[in-house]
Design brief:
mainly alpha, two-stranded antiparallel sheet, single chain, about 180 residues, 4 strands
Length: about 180
């Protein structure tokens, strides 16, 4: 099987006898293999950057009260109120910038890993408030969606630590190496 590079720089297999659909799927698989984790990294960064910047504007973040309460509880009252929100804003903005730009990415991923403890802790700390009668409030839903952010961060971290998502030359399907 030979491999060619398309005009957009994506390498994809050219196998004689394959249908147009099979070639299109192989091209799509090659493009996704080459670019999807970068797209995930940048989009994750934009989410963190957006949420972080909102926290710099008093009253703009729907999570502001939850952030104050969580940080106050986690720091045993040493960091509370506006300071808790500003600290969170700085961390989230830093994470977002590292993910979007790729600069200091490993440092940003370490901060993200530590931040996930704080981000997910309201589920444990305030379970009764977030799930009254067993039904999640809007705040609970806000926190629970962060499970997806954690999973995306894990994929980006795996790539940053050397894992490679490559196209299997025998099956034209992506695999991790």
């Amino acid at each position: 099987m030979s491999v060619i590079t398309s005009p957009i720089g994506t390498r994809h297999p050219q196998v004689p006898g394959k249908s147009i659909l099979e070639r299109a799927l192989a091209t799509a698989a090659a493009w996704l293999t080459a670019h999807s984790i970068t797209a995930l990294r940048v989009s994750l960064g934009l989410v963190f950057l957006g949420f972080g910047v909102l926290k710099f504007i008093p009253g703009a973040s729907p999570a502001e009260e939850l952030v104050m309460r969580t940080i106050d509880t986690l720091t045993l009252g040493m960091v509370s109120g506006t300071a808790a929100v500003v600290m969170t804003a700085v961390l989230e903005t830093f994470i977002g910038l590292t993910l979007v730009t790729g600069i200091a990415l490993r440092a940003g991923l370490v901060v993200l890993a530590g931040s996930l403890v704080g981000i997910m802790s309201p589920v444990v700390l305030f379970a009764g408030d977030l799930f009254p009668g067993g039904v999640p409030t809007l705040e609970a839903q806000y926190v629970l969606k962060d499970i997806i952010l954690a999973a995306a961060g894990a994929v980006v971290a795996a790539r940053a630590l050397g894992a490679r998502y490559v196209l299997d030359e025998h099956t034209d399907t992506p695999s991790v190496s």
